[in-house]
Amino acid sequence: MALAAELLERALFTFGRVTTSAFRQDMENGRARLDFRRPENRQFWLAGYHYLRSLIRKGTYRTALEWAKLLYALDPSDPYAIRHYIHVLALRAYESTWLVEFFEQMDQLGGGHHLHPGDNYLRQSLVLAKLQGNDRNSALELLRRGVQRVPWLYCALFQELNLDAPPSIWGIKPPTDTSSFWVKMYIYQTKDLWNNAQATTLLQQVTQAQGGGGNKVDASSLAAEDAAVDLGSARLAYLEGQTALLAVTPRHLLDSQPNYEFDPLPPPEHDNIFTGEGTQLPWRERRQQSEGGQTDELLARMQHLLAQRDERARRAAAGTPAAAEAAGLGMMNNFGGDDIDDDEDDEEIRALRAADDAELQRDIDAHMSWGNEPGILGTLMRMLGVTVGPTNRGEDEDEDEDEDGGDTDDVAPGAWPEES
């Protein structure tokens, strides 16, 4: 751990050394921006995320909060879903006033709507912020609204805290897989923050008061409010590596390719901004693998067709009339075309088959000629002047010896030459 933390600090120090003075000034003023669509910029986010985790393990929550603010400010789209760390770190660093202002600013930027997917769950931490600021009445009102809006979250929270859920929210489960993801993500981050006497007492008071008349929260009309899981949140779940969290992460995001340790779950290829050949290598390797699979399939088909042609030729040579007629028609492009009725074999069909056979034969010849061409190694050796393949050097030497020796063929093998 100590070595990993030191390497992270060195990496971040290197990033700082290569930045310009104007960028550092913008960073101090909160105006610095990095485009996440550029692959070379994503290395900074990855190093910053791991350094953030290192600071949390050390218990330096205020420093970790400042790093979370920086990573969030660099790209407003929040590609690493750092917002899921900001509300937790703000509470651990006793920055409850700043957290309230942060959510108010997000409301203004969102224009009355949630700025990011899952923000509705993050706002439940405002209850803890109000409690931390000794504003119990505001916390009570916020909690009452939260129970009405996301009752399945608080039902799961009761279970995680080993508390008996009251009848008002008992048995309410997340209605969709998306809701399950946001519930798992929030509880994974904030379970320890809710596990205190002040918070649990308020939880039991509000939920029991709402179920006092035997009324249960109606969750049927709330399922459509959750936004789909974004790629940034899936990337955060992947980096966290928690089994329970990965189990509810959408598979189409988690299994997307390419995916590397140095660039986890990058954006789709068309969303990237490439500035060099090296940044395109992950997508180029994937295309080559895909093309290689198609080439193998095509080669297998051609080998099968060649085997069929050879079989027909052998049968035709044996004198079978039906085989001779099939061989005269040539190799058919459709595997199921051998059983066509004689009534349908008119001139038009024969012409189409002949055209298909000719086109397929050209493809086969082109493939065979491509396979006989020298490879990269042979071309390089020929450029360097190294002779490749069989040579006639031995034959030339034998011819020279025959010309010089004259009648050497008359001498018996192993005999001494006659003296002149």
As a whole number of angstroms, the C-alpha radius of gyration is 37 Å
Biggest sheet layout: none
Strand content: under 5%
SS-derived structural category: mainly alpha
End-to-end separation in angstroms reads: 92 Å
Key terms for this structure?
single chain; 420 residues; mainly alpha; 2 domains; 20 helices; 62% helix; extended
Protein described:
This protein has helices at about 1-20, 20-30, 40-60, 60-75, 85-90, 95-110, 120, 125-130, 135-150, 150-160, 175-195, 195-210, 230-240, 245, 250-255, 280-315, 320-330, 345-370, 375-385, 395-405. It is extended and about 100 Å long. It has 20 helices and no strands. The longest helix is centred in the last third of the chain and has 37 residues, at about 280-315. The chain folds into two domains: about 1-270, no CATH class; about 280-370, no CATH class. With about 425 residues, it is an all-alpha fold. About 60% of the residues lie in helices and about 0% in strands.
